[in-house]
Design a protein that fits this description.
Elements lengths: L2 H36 L3 H13 L15 H30 L5 H39 L11 H18 L2 H10 L5 H6 L1 H15 L4 H66 L1
Helix pairs in contact: 1-3, 2-3, 3-4, 4-5, 6-9, 8-9
């Protein structure tokens, strides 16, 4: 078998494995979506998602659906989103299973903690947005509404807003994971991260001003946690860096010890050979 043929077969096998893992992920999401469709149902899930907004609306006011199929499609999209979030650990595990064989042993040891921490942080970001930010933002916006109008938000526009906010807060809570990965890969040093602290703070407020509504509450609610998570990321990256340095030092010491033992054995063999020569002459 030629080298080119072997490379082609290896490439095909990787594509087959990627296809299988994607299918498993899609099946897991479909199963979760089927369970959620049966209980509690798309309508109940959307009502739960819309609760922060409906509690801020005037009494008796409801959201509206402008499109013909919107009352059907929007709750279905929300159900699919929730199913993906619930199946996210399994999806990340499948992605890790595809990538892990091409990594070194110390990189594989870091993989599972990164998957767990990134999933937990993403869910914490979404939870923080839902339970704290939404309530504050919607009440703040409702307090500025003129008395001459009756707010009646469209459910599709609300879904788009919610997904944007969830992605913004979920990804912003991944800052510690990103810093640890960058330090672990040797892209940046912990000292540089400390030097860049002021630039990150400015960048966090700029990002918050872009992705959140034009109100001070939501901007502060996104920027301040990002700054705190940056500090936490520096702490975690420094711990990982110290652990890596200690492991490298132990490996170097073991290698030096093995080299010293090999040199000693070589000297002993040379001395024994010289002794045999002298003994033969005598």
């Amino acid at each position: 078998m030629s080298e080119e043929t072997g490379q082609q077969e290896s490439f095909v096998s990787h594509l087959i494995e990627l296809r299988d893992r994607l299918l498993r992920s899609l099946i897991a999401i479909a199963v979760m979506m089927g369970i959620l469709a049966l209980y509690p149902g798309p309508g109940a899930i959307y009502d739960l998602l819309a609760a922060p907004l409906t509690s801020a609306l005037p009494e008796g006011t409801k959201m509206v659906a402008i499109g013909v199929v919107t009352p059907f499609m929007v709750p279905l999209k929300v159900t699919a989103m929730v199913a993906f979030v619930l199946a996210l650990p399994y999806v990340l595990f499948q992605a890790w299973g595809f990538v892990a064989p091409g990594l070194y042993a110390h990189e594989r040891r870091l993989g599972i903690p990164l998957i767990i921490s990134s999933t937990v942080l993403f869910l914490l970001g979404m939870s923080f947005c839902y339970f704290f930010v939404f309530g504050q933002v919607f009440h703040f916006i409702a307090s500025f509404a003129p008395k001459s109008i009756t707010p009646a938000p469209d459910i599709e526009a609300y879904l788009s807003f919610v997904m944007t906010m969830f992605m913004a807060f979920g990804l912003s809570f991944e800052v510690p994971v990103a810093l640890v990965v960058l330090v672990k890969l040797g892209v940046v040093k912990v000292e540089k991260l400390r030097e860049w602290r002021s630039y990150f703070i400015v960048g966090a407020f700029v990002v918050a001003a872009i992705v959140t509504p034009p109100d001070v509450v939501s901007q502060l609610a996104l920027a301040l946690p990002m700054c705190l998570l940056y500090e936490f990321g520096i702490l975690a990256a420094s711990l990982v860096s110290k652990t890596t340095t200690r492991a490298e030092a132990d490996a170097a010491a073991a290698s030096q010890s093995a080299t010293g033992d090999a040199d000693l054995d070589a000297e002993l063999e040379q001395a024994e050979a010289e002794f045999r020569k002298l003994d033969g002459k005598s």
